[in-house]
């Protein structure tokens, strides 16, 4: 769903145009940063990005990106953590090789001692005492070195377990929206594409796109802090209105998406209506002064996966249905109704 004041213009085109105007290189992380600048309610991000002017350096862009979009720059941290794990593994390999060398030397010493025992003078008390001393010393040294190696390997294993935990957390953050804690656009794009990995499964999946009505008014009237609360309240009501296994995402700005599995068009429409009513019934008050900020409403567009040939078409048709809901007065649900003969899944 595009911004209400820029109807008919594709968001991607708007972002690319802005990047060209400011001389920003076309890196994925720069695309997301510019997209957020154009759609976010975060006043600090808007202010700092606007202050960059034309042709900002990549270092300046990354500085803002890491500050306001840490989930997106998590990939650099992941690479660093992966390198640390590689270093730890190399350290473990070195410990194993050192221990192997120690054991090899010990084995060689035992072999030499065995040979000396077979000599004629080996039975003499002094000779026997000397051999015992050598074996005892070598055994003690080997045990000490092996014990130290084991201790170090345990430490390395604990460090790698911690790094693995960090990687899992970075992976999670890379797909989570910072304001609503729902899945973000990256996770949504992956999940949307996966619908068509198996056409049989796609026959019972649906996409719902939602958009908060008059969201800009909340920001302009009460400030961006209240705007962020509007997003959080809408997200919370969406979560309460569907089961835990339903995929929910904030796809950008005031836009949300729901992907349903094993469902009919009628049930998908009912789900969108249930979410709409839950959002509408939730009061919104300014947490600082208790002022009633009015009610939040949302418009929704619904499309079944069977009514599109791919993820891009599914998104477009759900978006068209959403615009129909907006044009009809907002705070309602509209569905994409296909023409039977044009259903992509039933073409011969």
Concise structural overview:
The protein has 348 residues and is an alpha+beta fold. It has helices spanning 11-22, 28-39, 43-50, 58-68, 74-117, 125-173, 185-194, 199-202, 215-222, 224-241, 265-280, 311-327, and strands at 205-212, 247-252, 255-261, 283-285, 292-295, 298-304, 333-335. α12 (311-327) links the parallel β6 (298-304) and β7.
Structure description:
The structure is a single chain. By secondary structure, the chain is of the alpha+beta class. The protein has 3 domains: 11-68, no CATH class; 74-173; 185-346, Reverse transcriptase/Diguanylate cyclase domain (Alpha-Beta Plaits), CATH 3.30.70. Helix content is 60%, strand content 11%. It contains 12 helices and 7 strands. It has helices spanning 11-22, 28-39, 43-50, 58-68, 74-117, 125-173, 185-194, 199-202, 215-222, 224-241, 265-280, 311-327, and strands at 205-212, 247-252, 255-261, 283-285, 292-295, 298-304, 333-335. The strands form 2 sheets. Strands 2-3-1-6-7 form a 5-stranded mixed beta sheet, with helices on both faces. Strands 4-5 form a two-stranded antiparallel sheet. The two termini are 32 Å apart.
CATH architecture of the largest domain: 2-Layer Sandwich
The CATH class assignment of the largest domain is Alpha Beta
Under CATH, the homologous superfamily of the largest domain reads: Reverse transcriptase/Diguanylate cyclase domain
Structural class: alpha+beta
Extended strand count: 7
Strand order of the largest sheet: 2-3-1-6-7
Helix content estimate: 55-70%
The main pleated sheet reads as: 5 strands, mixed
Mean pLDDT across every amino acid position: 79
What is the gyration radius calculated from CA atoms?
32 Å
Give the amount of beta strand, in percent. 5-15%
């Amino acid at each position: 769903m595009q911004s209400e004041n820029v109807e008919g213009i594709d968001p991607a085109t708007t972002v690319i145009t802005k990047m060209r105007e400011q001389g920003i290189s076309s890196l994925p992380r720069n695309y997301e940063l510019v997209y957020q600048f154009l759609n976010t309610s975060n006043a600090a991000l808007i202010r700092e990005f606007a202050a960059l002017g034309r042709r900002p350096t990549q270092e300046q862009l990354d500085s803002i990106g890491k500050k306001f979009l840490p989930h997106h720059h998590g990939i650099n941290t992941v690479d660093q953590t992966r390198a640390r794990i590689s270093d730890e593994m190399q350290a473990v390999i070195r410990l194993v090789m050192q221990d192997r060398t120690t054991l090899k030397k010990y084995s060689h010493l035992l072999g030499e001692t065995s040979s000396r025992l077979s000599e004629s003078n080996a039975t003499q008390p002094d000779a026997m005492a000397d051999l015992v001393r050598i074996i005892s010393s070598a055994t003690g040294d080997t045990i000490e070195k092996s014990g130290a190696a084991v201790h170090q390997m345990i430490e390395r294993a604990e460090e790698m377990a911690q790094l693995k935990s960090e990687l899992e957390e970075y992976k999670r953050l890379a797909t989570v929206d910072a304001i609503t804690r729902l899945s973000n656009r990256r996770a949504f794009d992956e999940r949307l594409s996966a619908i068509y990995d198996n056409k049989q499964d796609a026959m019972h999946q649906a996409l719902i796109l939602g958009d908060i009505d008059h969201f800009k008014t909340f920001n302009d009237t009460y400030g961006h802090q209240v705007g962020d609360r509007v997003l959080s309240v809408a997200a919370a009501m969406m979560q309460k209105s569907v089961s835990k296994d339903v995929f929910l995402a904030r796809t950008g700005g005031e836009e949300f998406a729901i992907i349903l599995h094993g469902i009919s068009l009628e049930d998908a429409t009912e789900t969108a209506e249930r979410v709409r009513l839950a959002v509408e019934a939730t009061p919104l008050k300014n947490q600082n002064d208790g002022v009633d900020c009015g009610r939040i409403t949302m418009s929704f567009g619904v499309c079944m996966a069977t009514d599109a040939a791919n993820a891009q078409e599914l998104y477009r048709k759900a978006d068209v249905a959403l615009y129909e809901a907006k044009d009809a007065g907002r705070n309602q649900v509209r569905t994409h109704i296909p023409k039977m003969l044009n259903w992509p899944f039933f073409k011969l």
